[in-house]
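Now for a sample.
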Amino acid sequence: MMVGAWWVWLLALALYGAFRLWYDNWRGPLSKAEIDAYMAEAARTRLNQHSDPAVVRAFLEADDGKEFVMSNLLRLHPEAVPHPVSGEPTPGLALFQSYARLFVKLLLRHGGHPVMAMRKVGGYVDAWNTAPDPGWHVVGAMRYRSRRDMMALVVNPALRDVHGLKTAGTAVTFSFPAQVIVSVAPGPRVAVALVLALLAALVHLGSLLALVASP
């Protein structure tokens, strides 16, 4: 029983290792060949005609292999707009949510996840030398495992098929990549380690108590 109880820690360690294999980028920065291939495919499919190819390429060429967070500000159409496929009047929020559901699923497959989503509750409190507030509705942040994963999503045919939902439902938006400098919240690496350690400790303690209680 004592020997068996210790196996739970090996299992927890194996599970954490599997998590890190999925969550971390183990392939390093993008190569020039990869960048050229991704940019060519993005240009061919014309998935996002609102992005500046020069800005995207510069971001890819500066790849450090690390994770990043895409910060997004959006103002959705408050009124119903034509659905890009059916033409039926559809609220902008509903169109964007339909796109977001699939996007998040694909993002998770590539080691990314939502960091936060916030609803705007007031106008600019502090601003200078910037355009007037267009009426933002949502502020969001999405974690990407790597710039390679971002481009893999950009050229993903499944995302290309629903990207029209985003553009139809969104009136104004802009996005920019950023890397975390300071955060008071524990990230998934710490959170998953703590949860697995807690579960392993509970199973181990239960095994010890059963051993003590046995005649």
Observations:
- Helices lie at 2-23, 32-45, 53-61, 92-109, 147-154, 157-169, 188-213.
- Residues 1-29+186-215 form one domain.
- Strands lie at 68-76, 80-82, 89-91, 113-119, 138-144, 170-178.
